[in-house]
Amino acid sequence: xxxxxxxxxxxxxxxxxxxxxxxxxxxxxxxxxxxxxxxxxxxxxxxxxxxxxxxxxxxxxxxxxxxxxxxxxxxxxxxxxxxxxxxxxxxxxxxxxxxxxxxxxxxxxxxxxxxxxxxxxxxxxxxxxxxxxxxxxxxxxxxxxxxxxxxxxxxxxxxxxxxxxxxxxxxxxxxxxxxxxxxxxxxxxxxxx
Length: 193
Known about the structure:
Elements: H1 2-7, H2 15-18, H3 25-38, E1 43-46, E2 49-54, E3 57-65, E4 72-80, H4 83-86, H5 90-103, E5 109-112, E6 117-125, H6 128-160, H7 173-179
Antiparallel strand pairs: 1-2, 2-3, 3-4, 4-6, 5-6
């Protein structure tokens, strides 16, 4: 954790460069926060990352300078930590990620790990306008992938969980209507000897 905090420290830049948007991560964060607040979404900064909740899903936004170029990279992450997911077999977890990636044709990619599922989408940008336009597109892609992943996870969880069988019998609704008032009477009485 300490190493990650050290990597989040901004590179020192000169005074003149710090006046421009592309050299100031704080200005980038403020632009995204302002955009999300205009959409009615509350967010906060936690250890250098933006964290916001959209449709009961906690998403994280990381902004980093690329090591091999002068471009900035923005990454949108969603992490699913769930006990039901952890109980699945590794083959089912892999199936969820593989089918989600095959069914979606967008920038977001699902990763299956032993204890969680991660959806990640990232892009490089060169201006404030590009940052905000691509943020909207990539956020939509992450949410679309998340929806498909949840649907598929529910199907697999239903398939793997043992079915609960009812004890007794099932009365059809039309049978009740035919009985009229008799259908509302007691169905069984104890037999006295």
